[in-house]
Amino acid sequence: MGDLAVTPATTITTAVAPAGTLTVSYPTGSTQASLTGSIGGSVSINNNDTFPQAASGAGTVAFTFGASNITITNNSGITWQVGDILRAGFGKVPRNGSYNLVIGTTFDTAKAGNL
User: Fold this and answer.
1) Residue 40 falls within a domain, yes or no?
2) pTM
3) Is residue 42 within 8 Å of 4, Cβ to Cβ?
4) CB atoms closer than 10 angstroms to residue 22
5) How far apart are CA 11 and CA 111, in angstroms?
6) Nearest by Cα to 76 from 90, 65, 86
7) Which of 35, 67, 96, 97 is the residue whose CA sits 20 to 30 A from 108?
8) Number of structural domains the chain divides into
9) For residue 53, what pLDDT band results from cuts at 50, 70 and 90?
10) Which domain holds residue 66?
11) In sequence order, what DSSP letters do the residues of 9-35 get, joined into one string?
12) Is the pLDDT assigned to residue 97 strictly greater than 80?
């Protein structure tokens, strides 16, 4: 998945139709504050079908970061079935503000190796 934080495998216990939701726990070391605003995440079903994070749109998923868990909205266009294995990965949080940084990407800071 290539994401920064990934949830443990979750077995779906109730079918999740398009526009339906389910909740998962935060990955170890992650919190609402560390993931809110993240971009580039995804959901994998059965290590086969992967759906990218987006606010809306067919073939995607959306994340809502609550105080104690994460709600995933299924915009994939297919129903996730009972017994399917779901893994959710969460991307990076872009920096806010002006840092006048000329070295590194928007997700990196100037550090050895980026020169």
Assistant:
1) yes
2) 0.78
3) no
4) 20
5) 40
6) 86
7) 67
8) 1
9) very high
10) 5-90
11) PEE-SS-B-TT-EEEEPPPTT--HHHH
12) no
